[in-house]
TrEMBL record:
Active-site residues, Swiss-Prot/TrEMBL: K87
PROSITE patterns found in the cross-reference section: TRANSALDOLASE_1, TRANSALDOLASE_2
Main subcellular location of this protein, as a coarse class: cytoplasm
UniProt protein name: Probable transaldolase
Gene label: fsa
An individual GO BP term: carbohydrate metabolic process
Location of this chain's protein in the cell: Cytoplasm
Length: 218
């Protein structure tokens, strides 16, 4: 499973990259705003800075909601760096834009997906990635992981190449469960990735090894 980090924070991105397990980055307008990145030029420069930090795919989201606007914005974003994946909302205009980008060889991430039907449409439009938001479904007492399982079934039935990018991952167990049910990618905050490291038996075992070494070696 690929690991993406879901942030526009350069320090967090660098820390995940330095760990050696990062395959890419996803951002959205809220995450950019959280880092205080505003204005077209600053936003484009920030995407360039992210691309310089990581080796993998960097999802950059369009703001336009009409087809022409999405195409114009998406083409400008894709021209920034070959790592850029154009992130498009799951709307009628978004599906049209996704199809357009797919015929032009521009990679896409269809975002704000909350149903199997939406994921099916994204695959048919040639999306590179589809982003079901599992955390936001959990927030409204709906099983987000179940959606991933259902999309996996449908995509496998027809051998769709669109990759399932489990998004809105909030914690470490989300990552583990996404891996169990065959999500192609997960995107979550740095804390969810670092949480995978933790086990008390690792900590106590290491402490014992070091203590025993110290006894014998002074
Ligand atoms: C997806 O790409 C979004 O950026 C993100 O995963 C949303 O997560 P949230 O529901 O925690 O805001």
């Amino acid at each position: 499973m690929k690991f993406f980090i879901d942030t526009a924070n350069l320090a967090d991105i660098k820390e995940a990259q330095d760990l050696g397990v990062l395959d890419g980055v996803t951002t959205n307008p809220s995450l950019m705003a959280k880092e205080g990145i505003t204005g077209e030029e600053n936003i484009l420069n920030h995407y360039k800075a992210i691309c310089e930090l990581v080796d993998g795919d960097v999802s950059a989201e369009v703001i336009s909601t009409d087809f022409e606007g999405m195409v114009k914005e998406g083409e400008a974003l894709a021209a920034l760096n070959p790592q850029i994946v154009v992130k498009i909302p799951m709307t009628k205009e978004g599906v049209k834009a996704c199809k357009y980008f797919s015929t032009k060889g521009i990679r896409t991430n269809v975002t704000l997906v909350f149903s199997v039907g939406q994921a099916l449409l994204a695959a048919k439009a040639g999306a590179t990635y589809v982003s079901p938001f599992i955390g936001r479904l959990d927030d409204i007492s709906t099983d987000g992981l179940n959606l991933i399982e259902e999309i996996r079934l449908v995509y496998d039935n027809y051998l769709y190449e669109t990759q399932i990018l489990a998004a809105s991952v909030r914690n470490t167990m989300h990552i583990v469960n996404c891996a169990k049910i065959g999500a192609d990618v997960m995107t979550g905050p740095l804390s969810s990735i670092l949480g995978l490291l933790k086990h008390p038996l690792t900590d106590s075992g290491l402490a014992q090894f070091l203590a025993d070494y110290a006894k014998g070696n002074g």
